[in-house]
Design brief:
The chain is an alpha/beta fold and 129 residues long. It contains four helices and five strands, in the order H-E-H-E-H-E-H-E-E. It has a single domain, classed as 3-Layer(aba) Sandwich (Rossmann fold), CATH 3.40.50. The protein is globular and about 35 Å long.
């Protein structure tokens, strides 16, 4: 019973995708990847954008979120804005606050200037474009 309860608990949490842009194509690919590869978690996807200044929020992100939410009526797609920096401590705090394990968190492949190693994110995964 305990093992079954633990498995159900793992399956019932949302998936988080950290987005830094408002590219509709990029967001759509991420959602498709999650739908195709995360069978047990595909009912609730939370798009999370971490920003430093309000001016840094991509202009079309909210509109593109609404479009994708309508495009996938069987999936609850939420959009969450968090003021801060994209770093391991912030990801850990989000994991704790939203009660989403880090292996259910995704990000796109970081660029060469990214100051952290992927291992520092405690199991968050990369979606390759």
């Amino acid at each position: 019973m305990l093992i079954k309860s633990m498995i159900n608990s793992l399956r019932n949490h949302p998936v988080i995708y950290f987005t830094k842009s408002d590219s509709l194509a990029h967001l759509h690919r991420a959602i498709r990847y999650i739908r195709q590869n995360e069978n047990s978690h595909k009912g609730n996807i939370r798009l999370v954008h971490i920003y430093r200044r309000v001016e840094d929020i991509p202009k079309r992100l909210e509109a593109n979120h609404r479009f994708l939410d309508e495009l996938y009526p069987k999936i609850q797609i939420d959009l969450i804005f968090i003021q801060g920096t994209f770093d391991p401590d912030t990801i850990h705090a989000i994991s704790q606050h939203l009660k989403v394990p880090k292996p259910a968190m995704f990000m796109s492949c970081p660029g060469e200037q990214f100051p952290y190693r992927i291992e520092e994110f405690g199991g968050a995964r990369i979606i390759m474009d």
